[in-house]
């Protein structure tokens, strides 16, 4: 017994950092107490904000920054647009553009990373849809279009874009007067594909009685199909809708009978959506309540056939919050285990929450499933991008505005627990657990080589035994055991299995 206690203490000591690093808390080894805020080098502005960010393979971040200032002569606010690149520690990368800043003369709505760290930009210049390509050093790629920019000749609204698997591009717009959405298709060189639809444009009619419809998000699935998401407006009400198109960009009738599905929750304003490995669609957004004085967070999940997934939330929908009175969901990602990491703004602070795969708050994440992070002295902080780093930590980036119009690029890094939640701590006996993390029970698989008594013990993070079982004797070979965790609180546990010649210790996380 002394040997067992010693081994378990060694296991606990080896993982004391992992245990102390509670999922959902700041990584105090990053920046100053887990956060970084470095001034955006733009002078004499009334405000600046980051609209989009991309993470290069080397870990650097490309940020699209809009700044605005009041012009005393014209009496109007003037906007200017920039690309900036930051190192993983939040410092400006001075090798990009001019001292880390590349000034552009058009509004960027979407951007994509290309091979060689080139950047594809999509947006509007004087109401004309244009595309552009920027080199890794922060200059226009003059081999693309006209001196790096491609003018489409289309003076219509820009709503969403998606880079296609063949290197081409599709952009969404609409003609609200006659109830038609439209897609514009471009080849990899930025030229309009005039073989597509009518002069490179295909129209998608919809019922105006259901409201004016705007496509705000596009994603191509692994099978080549496309999911389009957006919001419709009718009589001051909003609804979120989805369209699925086949590879030829025609309606897919196997999705909700005609390729169209509108979520039944009135007020749902789509922020973004993700396509899961099984083809399900998870949509996230926000909604107003209490006479538009408050904002909350909402998620819905659809099955691949375009119907609500009743196994998620309540009848396919889950409402929640970061804990503030006005909570804005900006973006979410899916962990490899299908848990949901959502970020945004809660009362002018960085905000995160984690939901389990079935849509409930994950109490393993900071004890409540949510966390908020203020930046000292800032007026307003907005998280705009989240990335799971190779070690499983969550790097959240955005911007914060301070007194005297000082804008700062802000970063915070959090523990997720994902990288240790399914790892074997010590294994001299082959042991496996599934599922892990788990909610109520899991299957333990292990192998014994000789017929001997097997002892099974479960320890909490304080080294206390919470479950014991002996099997006398157990035959050699592969064995299985169902372990019930119904009576245990959510958290981290260590399972020890041993016989006279071998033992294994593995970590288990019980979620809600």
Task: Produce the secondary structure layout.
Elements: H1 2-14, H2 16-20, E1 35-39, E2 47-55, E3 61-71, E4 76-86, E5 101-104, E6 107-113, E7 119-125, E8 128-134, E9 149-151, E10 160-163, E11 169-175, E12 180-186, E13 201-205, E14 212-220, E15 226-234, E16 237-245, E17 260-262, E18 269-275, E19 281-289, E20 294-302, E21 317-320, E22 327-334, E23 340-346, E24 350-355, E25 370-373, E26 378-388, E27 394-402, E28 406-414, H3 418-421, E29 424-427, E30 431-434, E31 441-448, E32 452-460, E33 465-474, E34 477-484, E35 491-498, E36 503-510
Antiparallel strand pairs: 1-28, 2-3, 3-4, 4-5, 6-7, 7-8, 8-9, 10-11, 11-12, 12-13, 14-15, 15-16, 16-17, 18-19, 19-20, 20-21, 22-23, 23-24, 24-25, 26-27, 27-28, 29-36, 30-31, 31-34, 32-33, 32-35, 35-36
Give the termini distance in whole angstroms.
Answer: 33 Å
Annotation field: number of helices = 3
Q: What is the mean predicted local confidence, pLDDT?
A: 85
Structural class, please? Answer: mainly beta
Please give the largest β-sheet.
Answer: 5 strands, antiparallel
DSSP E strands, number: 36
Radius of gyration: 26 Å
- Uncertain residue segments: 1-19, 420-427
In the sheet with the most strands, the strands line up as: 29-36-35-32-33
Roughly what fraction of the amino acids lie in strands?
A: over 45%
Helix content: under 10%
Shape: globular
């Amino acid at each position: 017994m002394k040997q067992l206690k010693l081994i378990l203490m060694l296991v606990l000591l080896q993982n004391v950092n992992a245990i102390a690093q509670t999922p959902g808390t700041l990584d105090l080894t990053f920046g100053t107490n887990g956060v970084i805020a470095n001034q955006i080098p733009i002078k004499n502005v009334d405000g600046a904000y980051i609209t989009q960010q991309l993470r290069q393979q080397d870990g650097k971040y490309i940020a699209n920054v809009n700044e605005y200032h009041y012009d005393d002569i014209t009496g109007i606010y003037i906007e200017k647009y920039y690309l900036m690149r930051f190192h993983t520690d939040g410092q400006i990368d001075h090798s990009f553009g001019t001292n880390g800043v590349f000034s552009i003369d058009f509004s960027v709505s979407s951007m994509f990373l290309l091979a060689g760290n080139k950047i594809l930009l999509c947006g509007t210049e004087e109401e004309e849809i244009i595309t552009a390509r920027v080199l890794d050093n922060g200059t226009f790629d003059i081999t693309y279009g006209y001196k790096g920019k491609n003018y489409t000749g289309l003076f219509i609204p820009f709503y969403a874009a998606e880079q296609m698997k063949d290197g081409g591009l599709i952009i969404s717009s609409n003609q609200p007067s006659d109830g038609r959405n439209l897609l514009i298709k471009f080849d990899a060189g930025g030229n309009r594909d005039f073989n597509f639809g009518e002069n490179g444009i295909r129209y998608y009619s919809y019922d105006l009685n259901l409201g004016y419809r705007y496509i705000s998000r596009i994603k191509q699935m692994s099978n080549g199909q496309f999911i389009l998401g957006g919001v419709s407006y009718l009589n001051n009400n909003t609804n979120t809708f989805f369209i699925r198109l086949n590879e030829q960009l025609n309606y897919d009738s196997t999705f909700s009978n005609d390729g169209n599905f509108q979520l039944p929750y009135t007020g749902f304003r789509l922020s973004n959506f993700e396509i899961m490995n099984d083809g399900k669609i998870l949509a996230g957004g926000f909604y107003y309540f209490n006479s538009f004085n408050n904002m909350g967070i909402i998620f819905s999940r659809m099955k691949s056939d375009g119907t609500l997934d009743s196994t998620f939330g309540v009848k396919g929908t889950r409402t929640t919050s970061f804990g503030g009175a006005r909570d804005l969901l900006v973006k979410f990602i899916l962990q490899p285990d299908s848990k949901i990491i959502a970020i945004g703004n809660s009362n002018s602070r960085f905000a995160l929450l984690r939901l389990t795969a079935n849509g409930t708050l994950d109490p393993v994440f900071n004890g409540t499933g949510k966390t908020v992070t203020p930046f000292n002295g800032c007026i307003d902080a907005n998280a705009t991008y989240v990335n799971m780093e190779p070690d499983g930590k969550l790097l959240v980036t955005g911007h914060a505005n301070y007194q005297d119009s000082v804008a700062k690029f802000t970063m915070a890094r959090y523990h997720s627990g994902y990288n240790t939640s399914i790892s074997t701590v010590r294994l001299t006996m082959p042991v496996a657990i599934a599922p892990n993390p788990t909610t109520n029970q899991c299957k333990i698989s292990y192998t014994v080589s000789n017929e001997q008594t097997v002892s099974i013990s479960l320890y909490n993070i304080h080294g206390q035994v919470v479950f014991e079982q002996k099997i006398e004797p157990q035959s050699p070979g592969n064995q299985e055991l169902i372990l019930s965790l119904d009576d245990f609180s959510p958290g981290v546990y260590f399972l020890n299995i041993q016989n006279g010649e071998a033992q294994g210790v593995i970590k288990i996380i019980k979620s809600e």
